[in-house]
Each structure stands twice: as C-alpha cells, then as structure tokens.
Amino acid sequence: MILNKRTKYTIVNLLIILTLLISGCTPKETTEKLSLDHNTNNNIDTVNQNSIKELKVHFIDVGQADCIFIDYEEYDILIDGGNNDDGNLVIDYLRKNNTDDIEILVATHPHEDHIGGLDNVIDNFKVENIIDSGKKSSSKTFKDYKESVTKEVKNGANLIYDKDMVFNLDKDIKFRIIETGDTYKDKNNSSVLTLLDYKDVEFIFTGDMEVESENKVLNKLEDIDILKVAHHGSSSSTCLKFLDKVKPEYAIISVGKNNEYGHPHNETLNKLFKKNIKVFRTDKQGTIVAITDGDNIKFNANPIGFNQKRIKDIVIQSIDLKNEIVLIKNKSKADVDLSGWKLISVKGDQIFNFPKGFMLKGNSTIKIVSGSYNKNLVKDNKDVLIWTKDYIWNNKGDKGKLIDKYGRVISEYPNN
C-alpha cells in the first residue's frame, strides 16, 4: 500500500503519542511566549481562534516625550519610556493595566525624551527582548539606561540591535522592526521604526525619524491605518512622500503643552489636515488609546476639530473681473488670522498668498487688486492688498477660491 505524505505523518504522530502514554510522559510544555521569525513563516496559533480578541495601543501622555504601550492578551510591548521624571508614571500605568512582564521593549534612540524612564521600567519588570538602535550617547540618561539593560541581559534578556525582523504575537498579529540605517549624523534618523499588523489594521511607530530616513525606507512601507507622528510633529519630519506612501487615516502626536519647540509645527499639521487625516494630540487630550479587533478601530477620544463657525464667516463677496478687484469679507465680530491662506484664480491658475500675520478684522473687508489697478485706490489704504501688476482674472469668466491654511476650500465665487 502506498501512503501519501499526510497519512505517513498521521501514523507517526499516533505512534509518538502511544509511546508517551505507555511511558507515562506528556509532551514538553512550550515556555516561549514569542516567536521571533526572520522569515515571517513561524506563527503561534491562538488557543481559541473563534474568539474576538482586542488589541490596545496606549499613547501615554508623558508631556514632551514618547511612550507607547501595546497590550494584547499576555503580550506586552513598550516603545520608549518618556523623560527621566516619567519612570514611575510609566510603571504605575503598566501595573494598572495588569502588566507582569514585558515581552518586547523598544528604545527608539538615545535621547532623554525617549529613554529617560526606561531604566526604571527595566528595573521593575522582567524584560524578554530589548530592541535598541545601536546609537550611543555621553549623557547620564543613556548611562543609566545601559546599566539597567546590562543587568537585564545578565538575567536572560535578549539585546537586539535593530534590523529587519518580525515578531509573531499570534496567528494574525505581527510586530515588525524596520531597519532604517545607521550612518546618519542625526540620531533622530536612526530611530527604530516599528509596525504592528493585526489582520486589516496597521500601526506605524516612527520615533523621531526625519525626512532623510523617511525617504530611505519608502520601499519597505505600505498603507497603514494609524500613524504615530514622528518627532512630536516637528516640521523636520512627516514629509509628503512619506504620507503619500503610508496613507494613514489617523495620526497621533505625542507632545507637551506649551513646549519650547513650538511642536507640533503648523507645517506638519497642515500636511495632515490637507490629506483629511484625523488627528489626536496628547497635549490637548491626554493619553490616547486605540482599540482594535483587527477589523474595526475605536478611540477613547474624538479627533481634534476646527473652529468651523469663525472660518465660515470669511467669504469672497465679489470679484470684478474687468477691474481686477476681489472683495473678501469677515462677517463675524472676531478678528481672523489669514496667515497661510490662499486666493486662487481657477482659470488663470494663479495663487495669491496672504502675508504672514495678516489679520482680517471683524465685520471688515479687504480688497485684493491686480493688473493696472487705480493707484489712488491703494495709496495709504490699509484695506487693500496688492497681488501683482499682471492681469490675473479671465474677463470671459473666472472663478475664485479661498483656501485656508489647512488646504480646505472656505469660499468660492461665484458659488455655483
């Protein structure tokens, strides 16, 4: 009788089980909690595949710093640990969420606002795997962190310098480390980049990586759902090429209130809002928690919104195509800062950028003139802005659009 492969395996397995039962032994219990698989083929099966399991990602409010806690069943992952003074805060937060040990701890790069509290965390929890950027620092903060890491390694922890690898947390959950390179002068660019993939929901955690490293790893990235915005929303990060590649629906900015760096920068916020990305901020909303079952996502807060009432009160009142005069009115009582706003001639394909710091006072109008305008009109007139001496508007018919600093169309004339 010819046995096929499956039949052979079945007979062998039955013989092994029978031998174990006769000898009074049981199969050896697996003690590994994680599968580290460089080829992404070695998955750990869940105990009950039919049960819906929630994964939670906590963007902990640690002020002008980063700390992210990933909680799934018995697996706990910590990315960064806030500033030096945040160690106890992070420890308390982890304990309140029933954390007994940490399967993966990621130190994205050796700056104080990322590794500051990690020495306290390592000293208080058993850590199985420590992922490090490999970058060093002469700071006391880094020395404290390394001392704690060294002790934990002696106690059995694996110290891994970042490289392309995959941790399989479960059948449908992968935690990926993306190598970004180690030759950058700025340590921010060497931040450990990580991705979390749970069925149809993907997160990306960026540390403080900046445009240089963002561009370098584009070919390793794909569409994601939730972006941890790099470098607290600095304009040195989150370039348009990167956003176009990952296409996030949500963005979380970990940032401190009234910080000295002015984070998040308007340039970054503008990019996010122009792409209709829903934004959350720890400085305004505290700790942000994203919860997913691999198909749906919910948050403990609502995305940051806009003051729509005031914006809707700024309108293009008229456009005199022949005399090249546009009249814009503020119908509200409040002054409105038009910095970063644009007036667009649709057919002429021309753009007027409002001057930085330009305020349109409440219940007032402003004229924007171009072409051979009447010089008496603009002489000593604060209610006039000169666009150009060139002719902009198409006399046979043209449309004007008023765009706010977030790239949204606020008013059109004519509006049909």
From TrEMBL:
Protein name per its UniProtKB record: LTD domain-containing protein
PANTHER family documented for this protein: BETA-LACTAMASE DOMAIN PROTEIN, DNA INTERNALIZATION/COMPETENCE PROTEIN COMEC/REC2
Annotated ranges, domain LTD: 295-395
